[in-house]
């Protein structure tokens, strides 16, 4: 034990709040270190003086002044600083916080319930349709209508392709660096309310993209302009 | 009220804990409030005066402590110790006082000001000597007060609450809102600082 660590234990030692091991180590150090031994004695003396300090008594009219301030009303009104602190104190707003937390909990419970999920499914297409309508209105003027296409859609048939197939398709495809949000905006599949995930950079060309399968399924090629009743497929 | 009945009521209050008396005060008993003032006026005055070493201002702040107790009597929760509650009010008011003095001196941070002064702390001289029959006790008190005012406030408040007010480490931690380990290290550090400042007088005290 060095002098620094010994000093940090002085108060604990004086108040007997020290483990046996620390006590033994400290006492061994004090036996061999005169400086720390003297310092320990001085700390004891300092604590003794502090503990015997006489009370600073208030004046004889202390009580009466307090009561007079209450009687006159002077002491009953908080100052501006105190008023602001009180107004912002958590205790005052506790009921509001609890009500807010309760409302959030109810909304969250509704959204994760089957009823809430159905509501979201009904609401989502309407929202997407609105954005798609605007997008389509812009797209019609800019580009001619795409030719009918055909697709090999693994997810729509019971026979899913082997995992290697998807990667070979990707290797042979023209990969465009289009961001995921842009691809989503151009997708009409969401109009049918079918949420699907995509690989971010798997846009094959303007007409097709590689769609990631749901959990446990393989990716498949999907036409960008596919709608629910197109009935068109791609054959590779 | 007959004097005998008044005496009985006083005896009843004297037997009650601080928390029970405060509960009566919260219910509107003026007698209970008076009892609390009598119980705590010296301890609060002593605490505030040790912090700022200015007797007149300490008395004003101590009175404000009791006014706040009165104003907030209905918010007191019996689950907590009354002493911790009233000491917390006193410490907060004293800290506000120290901050306002620091601002008055044109500095925004108490700690920064203490560091600027090379750890000498803030001096709030008490020009009015305290009446004391015992000259030796008065001299010791003056020296301790000088030593206290020269150590940083965070150490001063911890050691005053522990060694002068005699509170437990847990109460000190609760009042200052610091964990137990920090309380212990601050008190130890404060004692080491005071020891250095009182060193020339420690032998005198022993004698």
How would you describe what is shown here?
The complex is a heterodimer of chains A (236) and B (207). The model of chain A is unreliable at 145-191 and 227-236 (pLDDT under 50). Chain A has a three-stranded antiparallel sheet, with no helix packed on it. Chain A has ten helices and three strands, in the order ααααααααααβββ. Chain A has three domains: 3-51, no CATH class; 62-143, no CATH class; 154-223, no CATH class. With 236 residues, chain A is mainly alpha-helical. The relative contact order of chain A is 0.07. Chain B has 207 residues and is mostly helical. Chain B has a single domain (16-198), classed as Rna Polymerase Sigma Factor, Chain: A (Orthogonal Bundle), CATH 1.10.1740. Chain B contains ten helices and no strands. Residues 107-133 of chain B have low confidence and may be disordered. Chain A binds chain B through residues 7-8, 10-12, 39, 42-43, 45-51, 53-59, 62-63, 65-67, 69-70, 75-76, 78, 81-82, 91, and chain B through 34, 37-38, 41-43, 45-46, 49-50, 55, 58-59, 62-64, 66-68, 70-71, 75, 96, 130, 132, 137, 140-141, 144, 159, 163-164, 166, 184-185, 187-188, 191-192, 194-195, 198-199, 202, 205-206.
Task: Please outline what is shown here.
With 236 residues, chain A is mostly helical.
Features:
heterodimer; A: 236 residues; mainly alpha; 3 domains; three-stranded antiparallel β-sheet; 10 helices; 54% helix; 6% strand; disordered C terminus; B: 207 residues; Rna Polymerase Sigma Factor, Chain: A; globular
Outline type of chain B? globular
N-to-C series of helices and strands of chain A: HHHHHHHHHHEEE
Overall structural class of chain A, as computed from helix and strand content, comes to mainly alpha
Our count of helices of chain A gives 10
| Helix count from the secondary structure assignment of chain B | 10
Radius of gyration of chain A: 39 Å
């Amino acid at each position: 034990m060095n002098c620094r660590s010994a000093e940090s234990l002085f108060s604990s030692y004086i108040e007997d709040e020290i483990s046996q091991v620390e006590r033994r180590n400290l006492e061994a150090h004090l036996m061999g270190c005169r400086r720390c031994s003297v310092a320990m004695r001085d700390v004891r003396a300092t604590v003794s003086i502090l503990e015997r300090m006489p009370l600073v008594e208030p004046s004889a009219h202390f009580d009466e002044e307090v009561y007079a301030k209450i009687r006159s009303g002077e002491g009953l009104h908080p100052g501006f600083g105190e008023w602001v602190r009180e107004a912002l104190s958590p205790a005052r707003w506790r009921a509001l916080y609890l009500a807010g937390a309760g409302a959030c909990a109810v909304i969250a419970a509704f959204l994760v319930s089957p009823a809430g999920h159905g509501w979201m499914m009904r609401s989502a297409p309407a929202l997407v349709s609105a954005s798609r309508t605007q997008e389509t209105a812009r797209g019609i003027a800019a580009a001619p209508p795409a030719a009918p296409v055909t697709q090999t859609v693994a997810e729509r048939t019971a026979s899913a392709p082997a995992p290697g197939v998807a990667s070979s398709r990707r290797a042979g495809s023209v990969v465009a660096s289009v961001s995921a949000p842009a691809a989503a905006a151009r997708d009409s599949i969401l109009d049918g309310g079918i949420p699907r995930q995509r690989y971010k950079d798997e846009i094959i060309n303007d007409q097709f993209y590689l769609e990631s399968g749901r959990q446990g399924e393989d990716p498949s090629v999907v036409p960008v302009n596919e709608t629910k009743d197109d009935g068109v497929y791609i054959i590779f | 009220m007959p004097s005998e009945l008044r005496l009985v009521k006083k005896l009843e209050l004297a037997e009650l804990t601080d928390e029970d008396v405060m509960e009566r005060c919260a219910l509107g008993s003026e007698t209970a409030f008076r009892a609390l003032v009598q119980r705590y006026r010296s301890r609060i005055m002593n605490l505030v005066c040790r912090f700022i070493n200015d007797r007149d201002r300490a008395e004003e702040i101590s009175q404000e402590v009791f006014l706040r107790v009165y104003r907030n009597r209905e918010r007191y929760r019996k689950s907590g110790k009354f002493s911790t509650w009233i000491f917390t009010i006193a410490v907060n008011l004293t800290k506000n006082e120290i901050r306002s003095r620091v601002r008055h001196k044109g500095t925004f941070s108490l700690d920064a000001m203490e560091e600027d002064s090379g750890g000498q702390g803030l001096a709030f001289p008490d020009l009015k000597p305290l009446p004391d029959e015992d000259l030796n006790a008065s001299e010791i008190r003056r020296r301790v007060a000088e030593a206290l005012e020269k150590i940083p406030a965070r150490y001063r408040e911890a050691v005053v609450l522990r060694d002068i007010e005699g509170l437990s480490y847990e109460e000190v931690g609760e009042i200052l809102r610091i964990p137990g380990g920090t309380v212990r290290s601050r008190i130890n550090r404060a004692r080491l600082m005071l020891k250095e400042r009182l060193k020339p007088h420690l032998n005198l005290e022993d004698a």
